[in-house]
């Protein structure tokens, strides 16, 4: 929950502000206001600004207004406000209105009679108020999610007073934005940081949009590179939360590359007392999503199967010893030479033992793959004709992948 363009239009004293186009973006969060004094705004906004265009310091013809509109969309601005009157910008060109609708960028008209000092003071006061409420709401949700409270009833009463409704059961989605370090190895630090922040703004806006579409939204909880979303229980005839989130991830990952977004989801139907358990489930599922990128980066706790049992083993050394006993020879061989045996084993299991498909997946000849499988059997002492040996290798491979997430393997 944050100040949105729609809320700005309803602020006391700003009744003469008028929405002219871009109603699809009315839920865009407003982070701050910015008065455009230069020819363009691309170098001056970081995302979330409500951009005011006066025409006082720079001529604003149709071409320039279109440029500002395109740059506002590119930089993820909350919206554009054009001041109109007799002296500078007389009217908003129809093409600008049409483009704002097409882009989904809220376009507001402000008469010059409405002084900027009144507008900025009203929006600034509302922003401070919403930020204070937002921090309180997020803190309450963090306490409930972490189980950090003495009295759940007391905390729920505070949540109600902050208009955070937790009466309905929720499913928890835990999302992580990964690979940000790649930006800083391929781009200058300033450009990389600006791109990272713009990506985070885009991600935040998209997740808030998803929550609004699902209905009964609760605030996102942001923890570093993680976002926690509490999703409502869906009716049987509606798309599941997983389907909705999978669509959003697919769209976002195309836009955010080389950054990659992963998501883990809890089982559904957690009440307030079980939300901490649900967050633990989502964490387990997120780890699996990162380790198994062929799942499109999304995993639900109900999908874990045997991985849930493995995750419940507290003594990590037991798992490490099992992996070393079953796969140690392969891991060691790959560390001394070109790593081909473990990727081969993964591809063979992924294709359910089909040599032709596994060879195609790795872009090698079938005879090459057959030779590698024979070498794997020799090094491990296992026979893939023995179901017990196959089970041991499969479980060891799961543990290895969970302990060493490598999303860019050839098997993806």
Automatic annotation (TrEMBL):
Belongs to the CdaR family. InterPro entries: CdaR-like_regulators (IPR051448), CdaR_GGDEF (IPR041522), PucR_C-HTH_dom (IPR025736), PucR_C-HTH_sf (IPR042070), PucR_dom (IPR012914). Pfam families: GGDEF_2, HTH_30, PucR. Residues 151-286 form the CdaR GGDEF-like domain. Residues 341-398 form the PucR C-terminal helix-turn-helix domain. It comes from the Bacteria. The lineage of its organism: Bacteria, Pseudomonadati, Pseudomonadota, Gammaproteobacteria, Pseudomonadales. It comes from Stutzerimonas zhaodongensis. This is PucR family transcriptional regulator. Residues 8-126 form the Purine catabolism PurC-like domain.
